[in-house]
Specification:
By secondary structure, this protein is α+β, with helices and mostly antiparallel strands. It folds into two domains: 132 residues, 2-Layer Sandwich (Fructose-1,6-Bisphosphatase, Chain A, domain 1), CATH 3.30.540; 110 residues, 3-Layer(aba) Sandwich (D-Maltodextrin-Binding Protein, domain 2), CATH 3.40.190. The strands form three sheets. The chain has an eight-stranded mixed β-sheet with strand order 4-3-5-6-7-8-9-10, with helices on both faces. A hairpin with a 4-residue loop joins β7 and β8. α1 runs antiparallel to α2 and α5 packs parallel to α6. The longest helix has 18 residues.
Amino acid sequence: MQKMEPSQEFIINLAKGAGEILRAGYGKEHSIKFKGPIDMVTEIDRKAEDYIVQRIRGAFPGHSIIAEESGKLDGDKKNRWFIDPVDGTSNYARGLPMFSVSIAYAEDGEMRLACVYDPLRDECFHAERGSGSWLNGKAIHVSTTDELLNAMLVTGFPYDIHKKNNNLDHFANIVREVHTVRRLGSAALDLVYVAAGRLDGYWEIDISSWDIAAGTLIVEEAGGVVTTIHGDSSYMRPPYDIIASNGCLHDKLLPFFEHAP
C-alpha cells in the first residue's frame, strides 16, 4: 500500500479553511484571555486551531503537531506540523487587518510544505521544497535591493519588552542605516512579504517555531536567505533568533548582531 503524504493542495485548503473562520469572526467582539502580561488569545485562535488539528489528525493520524495554543501533540517526530492559527492575534482582536494563518509540514527535520494565508486580502502564499514559492498561483521572488540605504526592513519585538535581549538596541542601530524599518505585528506576513519582494529583509529575536516555520521556507524557495542572527543556516532550533533577507543584503545585516548573545 502506497504511503499517503501531505500535498500542496492539502495544506492550501487547510489554511483557507481556517482563514474562513478568521474572516467570519473579524470585527466582532471576542473573548480575550491572556497567556502572559500582554500575550493574548481569543476564541477564534482556538476554533481555527481545532479545525486545523482535526483535519490533520483525520488525514495523517500518526503525525506529530506543534501548535501555538495546544503545544506539542504526540506523534511521529519524522512527520511534524507547525501551526499558528492566528499569527497577529493582537491585531486581529483590535480589528487591525494584519494577520494570517501559518501552517508548515516537516519531514525528517526538513520543512517540506508551507502556506501562509491572509484571509482579508485572499492572499495565499505557499511553497514546496524544490518547487519555488507562489502567491495565488503566480511565482514570487525576493527583491534585488543591494544597498542598506535603500532597504525597507521589518522586525518584531518580544512580548516581554523588559527582558535584556529585547531587540530595541538592534532596532536603534539598524534603523539609522536603512531606508525604513516596519513593524507589522505578524511574523508570518513579514516573511512572505520578503519572499514577494515587498520588503527586503526581516529579523527577530526570541520568536517561536510556529511563527517562522512556514514563512522561512517560502522565503528560501523565493530565492532568499534565512539564517540565525549569527549566520547559522540551522535556524529551526531554540532560541529562534533569525534573519531572512533577499540574499543581497544578508552579509550587510549580520554585523549588526556580532555582539548579540
